[in-house]
Amino acid sequence: MELSGETLIPAPIATVWAGLNDPAILRACIPGCEALEMTSPTEMTARVVQKIGPVSASFAGQVTLSDLNPPHSYRITGQGSGGVAGFAKGSALINLAEEDGGTRLTYTVDVALGGKIAQLGGRMIKGLANSLAAQFFQKFSDHVSGNAGAVAAVAQSGKQPARGVAATGAAVRNTTPQDGPGWRLFALAGWSTAAVLAVIALLQAAH
Length: 207
Hints:
Blueprint: E1 2-9, H1 13-19, H2 23-29, E2 33-40, E3 43-52, E4 55-69, E5 73-81, E6 87-99, E7 102-114, H3 122-144, H4 148-156, H5 181-188, H6 190-206
Helix pairs in contact: 2-3, 3-6
């Protein structure tokens, strides 16, 4: 199954890239994200909880990043398990491009499903994945464009803002040697992890 989409983020490409370096912002933006952990410079694991009505479901997923061309493109390959609901595995190609003072992010995801979720219609699955991606993009856009309410949400979480995030909440480019590739890869995986893997938890909760 192929999923694709795009969004225009109202911030320069360097600002978007810097915002994706901030793990606190990333966790705040991914729907239902409870944990993200780097297991190597190009691999990470995630735990997401989703709720439909009175039922909550959790899933575990892992992703690997490759073909990195910062700050323009990369590929993510991942798989996740939702227990008895089944599993999903696939890859996504992500591209960033400057457009009208902002950044156009486009993505194409190729995902294979197994177990009970494979019996559901593609239309429902695409709708859920698109909804998750839209939630992430809205929150992320608020953060990198300096939305005061979004910045306050991170502050209330008790986490310190990462390097490259100004006091106004608008992210700025940080190219110091200490800003290693690990957090960049960790952050870039976030929204596509939500869009591709969190759908497993949603489908599990629906059953």
